[in-house]
Design goal:
It is a single chain. By secondary structure, the protein is mostly helical. The protein contains 5 helices and no strands. The protein has one domain. The N and C termini lie far apart (about 40 Å).
């Protein structure tokens, strides 16, 4: 999909669930300091959906993860 500028590219990425979920998985793996298992897939999807509803920023994704039970019970 072509894009005209950085803002168009940003919009494309924000609409792409595969990309957003991948970023969520990377944040979770980094935050937990381990590779993700199959049980972590649902956590990544839920984190992505929650973050999307809040506007979808990286800052909000990291904040939501840090406040999540997954991070707090590591």
């Amino acid at each position: 999909t072509p894009f005209a500028d950085v803002m168009d590219f940003r919009t494309l990425l924000q609409k792409d669930q595969i990309f957003r979920t991948c970023v969520a998985k990377k944040v979770i793996a980094y935050g937990l300091g381990r590779a993700l298992g199959s049980a972590d897939e649902a956590v990544a999807l839920a984190l992505d959906q929650s973050n999307k509803a809040a506007g979808g920023s990286l800052h909000s994704l990291i904040t939501k993860f840090i406040l999540s039970p997954t991070f707090r019970s590591r």
